[in-house]
Amino acid sequence: MATTRKATTHWEGTLFEGAGQVTLESSGLGTYDVSWPSRAEEANGKTSPEELIAAAHSACFSMALSNGLAKAGSPATSLDTSADVEFTPGTGITGIKLTVRGVVDGMSNEDFVAAAEGAKTGCPVSQALTGTTITLDAALAG
To answer: Which residues pair with 101 in a beta bridge?
Structure first.
């Protein structure tokens, strides 16, 4: 069964002088300020489309990897994933770096890296970002 999630943005003013608020409608978790300076310069307590993509990508990848490890008979004790989304004004998103460290009993680092590569490819957010260079740094923790 398909699900739909919704977020909305209210923007006022021009791109460079204006500002907006993005609201996570489906979850009701909150409303967050956005602006061009928070996107292209320092965050200064505001979010950006790229930070929201990073959040979505790190969560989706972690879910995909967790599922893949469990299906392979080696469930993870923990996974810590970060996604760094690089944005260049005038060009757009120029790359995403996923970094994951996992605790998986009885698994070799080589097998963990292979599972992480599979999760990177199979993650629905990675698939939605087709055309963007996505790199991966995966290793067992410790």
So the answer is: 80, 139
**Whole-angstrom distance, CA of residue 50 vs CA of residue 39:** 8
Beta strands in the chain (DSSP E): 7-12, 19-24, 30-35, 78-88, 92-103, 134-140
Tell me if the pTM is above 0.85. yes
47, 32 contact by CB (below 8 A)? yes
Cβ atoms of 95 and 86 closer than 8 Å: yes
Burial of residue 37, with CB atoms counted within 10 A of its CB: 0-12 exposed, 13-18 middle, 19 or more buried: middle
pLDDT digits (tens, 9 = 90+) for 52-100: 999 999 999 999 999 999 999 999 999 999 999 999 999 999 999 999 9
Structural contact between residues 96 and 136, judged by C-beta atoms closer than 8 angstroms: no
Q: How far apart are CA 28 and CA 30, in angstroms?
A: 6
Residues 27-36 have a mean pLDDT of 96
The CB-side HSE value for 21 (13 A sphere, CA atoms) comes to 6
Overall average pLDDT of the 8-25 stretch: 96
